[in-house]
Amino acid sequence: MELTQYPFIRELLSLHLDPGEYVVAGSGPLLAHGLRREIGDLDVVARGEAWKRVVSLVGTVPAPSGHGRMAMLFGGDIEVFDQWLPISPEPDELIESAEMIQGVPFCPLPLVLAWKQRSNRQKDEVDVKLIKEYLARAEDNGPSS
Questions:
Q1: 69 φ, ψ to 5°?
Q2: CA 136 to CA 129: how far, in whole Å?
Q3: Secondary structure, 3-state, the chain
Q4: Inter-axis angle of helices 109-119 and 125-140, nearest 10
């Protein structure tokens, strides 16, 4: 699966952000791992020059979570945050723990699972199940001792 087939990924890449300065969060990692074929938008956590670039393009508003600031690009297709959810690691930790998939940094699925479980939102129930099944398969197929 080529990630650039998804318009949100193409839009993100068109910003030419340093991949060491942002990470795709939310449901984006499920898309990257083939667990979902569609998502409503792309959530990104950014810092440093990547955050400054985004802010210079559109400005910011308070994040819906009440935690940090958010910039909306491409008519809301991409939402860039300077903080993620209050129950998640700080931006530096999220960004530094990113896994690169086809040149795009994504939050690792165990982190996505942790905040989706803690958020306890009905809309995340299917994602929690998909991630758990995926991680269980990966563990079953991992290297044997």
A1: -120, 160
A2: 11
A3: CCHHHCHHHHHHHHCCCCHHHEEECCCHHHHHCCCCCCCCCEEEEECHHHHHHHHHHHCCEECCCCCCEEEEEHHHCEEEECCCCCCCCCHHHHHHCCEEECCEEECCHHHHHHHHHHHCCHHHHHHHHHHHHHHHHHHHCCCCC
A4: 150
- Average pLDDT over the chain, rounded to whole? 93
Domain definitions of the chain by residue range: 3-108
Q: Name the residue among 70, 48, 50, 52 with its Cα closest to residue 61.
A: 70
Q: What is the pTM of this model?
A: 0.92
The CATH code of the domain at 3-108 is 3.30.460.40
Q: Token digits for 2?
A: 């080529």
Instruction: Give the pLDDT band of residue 145 (cuts 50, 70, 90).
Output: very low
**Model confidence at 142: pLDDT above 70:** no
> Measured on CA atoms in the order 87, 76, 107, 120, is the torsion positive or negative?
positive
Residue 69: per-residue pLDDT: 97
- Planar angle of CA 34, 37, 39, nearest 5 degrees: 115
For residue 139, give the amino acid letter: E
